[in-house]
Batch of 4 targets.
Target 1
Amino acid sequence: MTALLAVARYEFRMQARKRSLWIAATLLGGALIVLQGDRGPRSLPVGTPAREVMGTWALLFAILMPLAYGMLLADRLVRDRKLRVEPLLESLPHAPATRLAGKYLGGIGACALPGLAALLLAAITELPKRHDPALIGWALVAFVVVTLPGIAMVAGFALVCPVIVSVPLFRVLFVGYWFWGNMLAPDFLPSLTGTLLTPIGDYGATWLLANGHTALFAGTPGFLSFLRPDPSAATAALSVAVVVLCGLIPLAAAAVVAHRSTRQTWPSKA
Amino acid sequence: MTLTIWLHEARRAGPAALLAPPAALLFAAAIAVFIRATNGSRAQAQTLLLAGLEAITPLAVAMVALTIVTRESCRELHLSLPTPHLATIGRRLGVLGAVAAVLCLAYAAVVALAGYRTGSSGVAALLVWAAPTLWLAGFAALVAAATRSTVLASSAVALVWLAEQVWASAFVGSPLLRPLFLFFTSRVGDGPGWAANRVGLLAGGLLFLAVTAAVLSKPERLLSEEDA
């Protein structure tokens, strides 16, 4: 446990200090603020419930900001190999799974910082207009329900997949997936958009809106209909759980492979 | 000798330079086949096949281009050689461009033989994929050369690509943004305004590459320990 926390803390500090994380997140978040149009949170009338305001902000930021997190985390495991420090790290007493889990938790923590900062800043800038202190509280709820699960899923895949498909190809697939699996209308092509598996936080944001409308496509009929229940508090919680668990699948697979690999190479190392 | 250098630079460009363009095209073709196999419409399949040329391939080429510009583990060694570093990077980008061009031509020919339409016919058909690919790859190379960061460059490419997909109507509707719209053929068609859009993209792409060359002509700007 101490080793896990140490790896996570070290990874968190390394990532949180990267200028590129903050600049990329600011670039993408800033573009969303500019491009939000008349359907964005700034256009919501005064008197709109705080949870709806912050749900709309959280969904807006979730459209593009996770791309920065995926790009940042894509080289975390590949980098160890590239810098030829992987054998050194493997010689340490803790299990490879511990290092992997530590990188995962530290990466999530670092990527969560700009996500949380964006939502809190949005809440603070809304305060003078709406005079509702509950905005801060709902910003935190929106962060937990919409932003954080998406980061967890992105982190799981961004850490492991580049080892298999290379970093540039992962980045291509990730951008394509983000559009296809989160924003492409399900009646246009068979896609995961509107299912419980959308890391953009469609179900969570729809629960926060609580106005009878879906945030994007949550529950819209389409491909894999069993993954498209009607949006509610229960299905929002289910979506959070499913999205987080999905992010753990590649990690678990990588941990198993790393464990077997260590056992196979142990005699030759000895 | 010349061929040897080009083959060497093809290897140094990395497997992604050779694999990403065919992977992008195969991906689009596979989904189109899946759609037809699951009783999807012919129009849906045609849109996807066109998207493979006009949207997915430019994204793949751009991501590899920015990697080529930023990834060089022995840049100091290159700077000490008589060959300008700009020429080395240029050859690697050239290999990427050649691979993408050959594959796009073959893909377009196969799609046409299968009876699907991917925009204009004749020489103009080249612009369906060449114009957005040149623009996005030039943009990626420029941001990568200027920032020396793959994270920033790939985020910027992702931002442009996704923003143009999500806010397509805003790009089409604005005379200022229309020359920057990458997906004109698949979203609007090859009617009025298409040629101007393609010329705008080509001009923009060439401009980006020229500025990238200017930045790379001072390669000491690229010296850094690691992605910041």
Target 2
Amino acid sequence: MLAAQLDSEIVGLHVRDPYLKQFQTEIYAQGRLEYLDHVDQCLASDAEEATSAFGILATGANVRWRVKTLDGEPIEQITREAETGDYALLILGRRPRKGFAAWRSRDLPGKILAAVSVPPIMLVPADGI
Amino acid sequence: MSIIRSLIVPGWTRILPGVLLCVVFAFVVMNIDHMLHRYYKADVASTKIPDLKRRLALATAAGKTKAAVKLSKSLRKHQKALKKAGGKVGQSWNWATFLYQKAQFKYVAMLLIGGILIRNIFGIPEIFKPGVAVGRPLIKPGIIILGVHYIWSDVLRVGGTGILLAAVFIFGTATAVMWLCRRSGVPDGLGGIMGAGTGVCGVSAIIATSPVVGAKPRDMAYAIGTILLFGTAMLFVMPYLGQALGISQSQFGTWAALAILNTAQLIAAAEWYGDEARNTAVLINAARIMLIPLIVVFAVWFYGLKGKGQDIGFWSTMAKKFPVFILGFFVLILLNSLHLDALGGPKTAGTPFWAMNAVYKWFFAIGFAGIGLSISIDDMKKAGGVAFLIGSGAAMTKMILGLIAVLIIGRELMRVTGGQ
């Protein structure tokens, strides 16, 4: 809504995280190339799905949009993109967690928030406060 | 020139720092292990020497020549151990006995616990990560070399019984897990990788199976996290549990090979427990990993995946997923069984097999350094969802059933003799 009212373009960032690829060095791993291909295909199809879902939402809200796909560790990639790209506002989503769930979580939005200088907006689900 | 170039691993400069880190870590720990072992032996010698001297005097006075010779030999051995530590009778090194004997703080434990602490407290700089990951598979040459510890009768007796047991456990677990997943509405991709992962050898089996069953990344992360969590927990719990239960080396080796979900942790736990446990575990594990292609074929059959556009026929799967390196292990067993003078044996000093036996522990040490430095709590935090429920159920069931099986089998059947 904010983007529509300001007539701004909204850029979706999608990061293809190669995390699963590291396990190809497991001692008795067989069919390593096939495994890596499978991971690549999954990452590509997830990126397509995310782009299309983002597009539907943005188009529905009558906002100009595009999706930028990055490769690498998500926190690192998003932080670098936010700092080097020409962005006026960084919109993040966060589901508050407590106790064991908080310990398990990587807290991606929190870490990005701490690392970037672009003004952020943190969206929290209504039932999450 | 092109031949030499083809021998160089592509991107070797990227992996060199991490591999060197593993080598240095292994070198330091192996030296600490030797030092602990030396002081432990000296502590034992310091306690035993006065008693041996008294018994030797009694035996000599009573004219018991045979007993005197035996006691004298034992006395010399202990005096040598004491001399190595530069100590005197009456001196004590209780700390070494506690660490080495009671706490079982040997090189395996030092590398694994040390590696985990380094990785998770201080972190590993990016430059070392690719090489540390490559450190783990360096256990493979160690396993091939271990072939000199066996002869064919061991393979037939221990390996034969082991493969039967392993087949029952593998296909029993895989069938039960896949069936339960299907009944509970778990996606085929997750059910397939959890069946294979909890059945055969953890992450290795997940890697072989996930492309075939079309597992989703989120499910793979859950499954790998779960397998690593239970594999690591069992690695530290089972050796102490085995000691508390008083089970023999060969029984522990069999138990570890049947129950521990991940291969790296299985070998580490067995090596930690002792040489005999490791010999039994490695042989059963060699039989077990040859079943990886069969578990993939089983998953294809179970989920009716044939004819969905993938090349997943029986023979092509066997060829693609067969662990070829294990043939090297069997070739060495064959050569050892032939008792060729030119090759000697692991205990015949100065022979090729003796030299090979002397270096296997270094491959293991570097590999364990890689394993310890790769165990990340963040990876295990990813354990969750249905995969966690399946993993915990399978891990506990295999641990209990495996223990019952080895208690029934007894100590002798699974003992590797190596022709001794």
Target 3
Amino acid sequence: MAEEFNAEGMLDMYLFENEQLLEQLQEMVLDQKDSECFDEDSINEIFRTMHTIKGSSGIMMFDNITAISHKLEDVFFYLRESHPDNVPHLELVEHVLTVEDFISGEMEKIRNGESPDGEPAEIIAELDKFLEKIKSGAVKEGEEAPAPVPQNVHVEPKHFYIAPVASSASRFYKIYITFYPDTEMANVHAYKTVYALKEIAEDLLYSPEDIISDPESAQVIIKDGFRILLQSQSNEEEIRKLIGVGYDIEAVDVFECRAEEFLQGFDFGEHELKIDLESSVEDIEAKVKAALDESKEEEKAPPEKPKMAPGDFVIKSKEPGKKKQLAKDKPKGEKASFISVNVSKMDQLMDLIGELVISESVVLQNPDLKVPGLNLANFNKAAAQMAKISTDLQNVIMSMRMVPLTNIFQKMNRIVFDVSRKLGKDIDFEMIGEHTEVDKNIIEHISDPLMHLVRNAVDHGIETKEEREESGKPDKGKVTLSARTEAGKVWISVADNGKGLDREKILAKARKQDLLAEGKPESAYSDKEVFQFITLPGFSTNEQVTEYSGRGVGMDVVVQNIQAIGGVLDIESETGFGTTMSLKIPLTLAIIDGIVMETGNSSFVMETGVIKEFFSVKEEMMIHEPNGEEYVMIRGECYPVIRLGKWYGMEDYRTSVEEGMMLILEVENRTICLFVDKLIGKQEIVVKPIPSYIKKVKGLSGCTQLGDGSIALILDPGGLVE
Amino acid sequence: MEETNELRKQADDSRNGSDERDAQKGKYMTFKSGNEYFGLKIQYVNEIIGFQAITAIPETEDYIKGLINLRGKIIPVIDVRLRFRQEPFEYNDRTCIIVINVKSTIVGLIVEKIAEVVEIKEENILPPPSIGRADKVQNKYVYGIGKVGDSVKLLLDPDKLLNDADMSVIEQANEMVIDEE
């Protein structure tokens, strides 16, 4: 029964949980940023989130996080209870996001082993002002308006964790347990009861609170009884059964109360219930009433003081200062849902599974099995089963490493929101393909570059309202963030419908900086080449340096970061119509559906997506140009042909088109034909990078291990087209 | 193969624990390539594996033979003889691949024959002669000549072996990438 107090684990869990909560919060807030106001569910959800964060931060003694989440919770409590209809929604959204930023920032400090020392006073003051504003604007709702209580609650955060899920079917109980006066260690018995009740509790409060660490509490329990307030789905009988009547318990009284009563006691009033440990239950109730009465006088109290929020039940214990978390059970079913695993262990597991697959094929295709006359029916059955399991195993380990881009996209959503608000631009933000899954390592690397691109799009790309009106565009700017996988790569594009890049301006600047090659006329530069200038260090055409961009750092950093992971930045732009920046990133460890083929003595793999069809061609369909180029005529269309064997200068490849196989590929809006010796089959493949020791080979994007352990090279159709 | 196993064991043993660092000092893995015996500092050697199927990569230098699958890890292999501009040789049962790790780059070296692990004392290592040899190309990989009894081992600088001339190739490759953009 001794509590395992593993501070390290708790901290990790705290950070992990809160991070999740904040992400959900942000997603929800941004989701509704354009609507009139938050809907009922969101308000409740934000309220609950803040409450949970406040509770856990209180336990961890991060006072500033506690204070600020508390304040936001207050705001949402007011919204929830009073339904004011004149809330400036965007302002509210900003407040929520500010608080979220603050908490995220503090958590980052905690994660880095620093102490969370951010000063929330300013934000709290802002929130207070905001709360005052919506209150004064709202219909006077007298009693319902939350009243600050001038108690310095946060010096000793004693919040109990409250399970966030409360279904309407729950019932509310007040339980009084009286122990025999001669019971030894009544506190331990009391804890046993609490422990039993946690199983069914949705909400559980008890007094005295400090029953584990404070042996004194035993006397208090014997003298005054042990009091529990319980919210649960269970009925009285079940509760009694759980508590059980042992030799030590003299009497158990379970009173069911109505939800209103329950709330009245602990929710409605928003009062700190100061309960002297010596007082009886009747006294507590009396105090609740007294506190309620007092609240009206306290209406004008200075708002800086954090006040009680619903759900908090603060018991002033005899020994303040001892932090204890007794009822910090998470909602059932979520426990141990996540563990964090060292990535290197995952890599190891992955390698092992690779080996397993290989040895599996060694066993299953063992030459010994080829002996004629063997009865292999049972063997084959067992082998099939084993193959199935190992495939599943592979899929699981792969999926463990893959993370959807959702979070990073949400972050971008946030940036667009912030920057556009600050710049006074009205911008639609669209996300496409945010569920595209990318290897975790990649995600970490693209976050910053993407952020730059999105900021640039909002800041440079989209014009101001006035400019847009002048050029006769619909007045809303639009930024589209999209992700897709193509040709074994992830393409993440940031497109805006703004003014586009100005070729002349860039060229002029390049001339000024002596970047143009001598003897090359400006007209000889293709648009793509010109646009690449902006990725050079110190190159910014934005005349004005703004808070967000224009310092000339950015694009070069973007390119550097992208190149570091073997990616490429592609810029397309049409003056007056917008710019599209595309990141083309290899999926280092992604699984792609591939077609395995053979040319010469080598195996190659091509992503299934780009292959339109396979075609057996006849010699007369071929068109030969005198310079050696070849075309093939299929159904009246003429496509260029690449012979893979010739392309790579291999030996022993099939030269007659009738013996081999023609693959019709559609890459980057072009159609080409690829001629290979033969097709082997379709397979899910794990893309692995070609070791960096080997120089980049055009048309190859990686390699993979086939089922038999041999290595196949992955063809990059984009490279073949160039 | 017994010999190889023995050596493999030695290599493994000597990589265990830092207290055995000293034991590694001055020890060299020697192998035969052409008529010469070469030595590599044992700390660079990860393991020795038997010859296995190599997947060729097009458009690379001839001495880069391709990729092998080392327990799920894909590593490049180079032919030491071709690297030294010597005549190519037929791979057979005695052909071994020495897996070395130089500054986190893992590369397999195909060698004709593994010899032994020898200890060469500092005073028995001479600087390479600067003139007098026809194939000067070789000299830049050799940082010293170790005397073991009557025989002589050419001591290789693995970093140069892998990267020296290749560096420019990689730079070229990088430039190529930039051009493509």
Target 4
Amino acid sequence: MNATLTILEAAVVMLGLVILLLDLWMPAAQRRNLGYAAAAVVGIIFAGSFLIDASQAQYAFGQMYVMDSLALFFKRFFLLAAMAVLVMSVEFADRIPTGISEYYALILFALSGMMFAASANDFILVFVALELITITFYILTSFQRSRLPSLEAGVKYLILGALSSAFMVYGIALVFGAAKTTNFNELAGAIRTIVGQPVYLLGLLLVLVGLGFKIAAFPFQIWAPDVYQGSPAPTTAFLAVGSKAAGIVLLLRVLFSAVPEVTANWTKLLMIVSGVTILYGNLCAIPQRNLKRLLGYSSIAHAGYMLLGVTAMSIAGSSAILYYLGGYLFTVLAAFTVICVVMREVEGDDISGVAGLYQRSPLLAVAMTLAMVSLAGIPPLAGFFGKFLLLKAVIEKGAVQPMYYWLIGAALVGVVISFYYYLGVVRAIFWSKAAESQTVIPLSRPVRFSLYACIAGMLYLGIFPNTLVNAAIQASKALRL
Amino acid sequence: MQVGLQHYLVVSALLFCLGLLGVIARRNLLIIYMSLELMLNAANLAFVAVSRFNGNLDGQVMVFFIITVAAAEVAVGLALIVALYRKRQTAYVEDLTTMKL
């Protein structure tokens, strides 16, 4: 029993509670600045995470919680994401009539759920961590109570989220019924006697349904566009980065730590899901005019790209996913920070809102352009190298199973389609005539800093990928691959 | 007749399917939400039955977690549905059409 391992999570939860308490004594006008304080403390916790040594896997709570290199990698990822999201939500504060401190606190509680998810080594912790994330997000999506789209997004997320967790819980019950344990280490050890039981396989399939919902993979993606469109911009950003990454880390843990031998038989299923998800996301994004909805579909496509790495079933594949997520973090946060700032006056988040952005604010225009180019996967940005690593991992497997080549074909078609709509946004920024307003957009110093950090991240990871690739390989060694 | 583990699991599977049917077929948000709770309780029944017949308490612990989480989910969910009703004066899913392509 080693509860001190959870020190990072404990710090985040404490921070959330302190924010709620400070809110009681603070004059209303100053409450929005609590977000900056929270972001700063999250930054300190992020720095503190480098003091932790996780080269050996350490366990807590009866092997339910594991602290290894993979867990630490994702904890840092989530902390970085939360920092940018907190800065973004201070910018958003004037559009939330009451309770901005609760908004910050909920972001922190969701963050702690994600960090627990990164360390899950037991289906019980998987369930509890996922629900902590999901229930907090029900509130975060519907936080603009006076706007109907926000409420609608919340209700849709609520119904479909609850449905997916019901599937997942029932799946866990079936797995527990067949294997008599919910612990990943014991499941991996006991596998040979139970691997053929239909109840066990059905249970695992239902668990995958729940995780597929979290990462918005086909056919569990229907919620994503509506929820992305209706939610407040910082929530959407956190949903796109944090919630998706939490789903990915759980998927990796379940598939490769708990049941590696079952996963090996499911390669074809995963390949089909991955290919269809890529094509669906990219094709549906083409006609979109709403930026957040467009990014919703694009996030479906990106879930498909990440599943490419899962289908490769190798260290190369899973480390490519981790690298890809690292690039995706900076890219998506840059895009949503820009959306959050620009769409202040415009109702509806239409692409025309960014028309002529270059004249209004060159920094925002450059950040958005780089984000779109990186999402499309054009060198030398992070998105390109991530896709390159993923495809490389899949091609290495092509020799044994020709179906991998079809998958690569689908992925390449998806990338080509995606150029069209990503570059459509870039065209609106630079070459659109119909700019509604020509006023210069004021930028606060933290937002400026956050944008510079995202741009630096995208460029640095694209040009010098070695640091992150090595960290990703180290982290994936924690899996039983 | 001896009531065994299979019987419990069959009942739990039936409950789960009934809940799923309710979610798919009914149009009222509150009924859908009730059906979702039914699905969670199907899982609870399966957990308890497996635990009881194997002399393993892990499943019963999991049930406590599920009940707690379900309570939190209901609190948030009902609040959301009430907020939606105040704004839109409806609790039917076909009226949730603000965001369409």
